[in-house]
Amino acid sequence: MAQIAKMEVQTEIKSSADKFYDMFRNKRHLLAKICPQELKEGKLVRGDWKSVGSVREWSYDAGGDTEAVKETIEAIDDESKSITYSAIEGGMMKYYNTFKSTVNVTAAGEGSLVKWTLEYEKKNENIPDPIKYLDLVANLTRDIDAYLVNA
User: What phi and psi, each to the nearest 5 degrees, are found at residue 66?
Assistant: First the structure.
């Protein structure tokens, strides 16, 4: 039986924690315009862009491959500036039984620290770790930060 595994990436950014978190909490619908190299399209499937249980579909570039995912917002903690998403359909689900991503933003000096945690269960031991998805969220973080700094 496969086990749940975790991978994390942390990035220091220049943007404030409040502004960066707000992009994911209230303005996620803008991300495909802000990050066109990574996110090709985002559309609302059910609910809204910012409530637990809402479902969105994204097409994105990960490791040179264009893929799609349908995700739901699983948890939101505004106090700790943390949001957890869970993949429910899409290309990655061919390889993983479960796949969750959590973004957590904390103030750090004049900027912030953004930590992404990927939690996943491989379908079998021959499946690679999801490094390309970790790279994707790290690139998104840098692109969003650049947008906010220049806005």
Answer: -85, 125
- Residue pLDDT, tens place only, 44-67: 999 998 899 999 999 999 888 899
Residue among 69, 77, 21 at smallest CA distance from 45: 69
* Angle subtended at Cα 28 by Cα 80 and Cα 67, rounded to the nearest 5 degrees: 115
Given a cut of 70, whether residue 144 has pLDDT beyond it is yes
pTM: 0.93
Rounded Cα–Cα distance for residues 7 and 113 (Å): 16
List Cβ<8 Å contacts ≥24 apart for 51-58.
52/76, 55/88, 56/28, 58/32
Q: How far is CA 111 from the centre of its chain?
A: 20
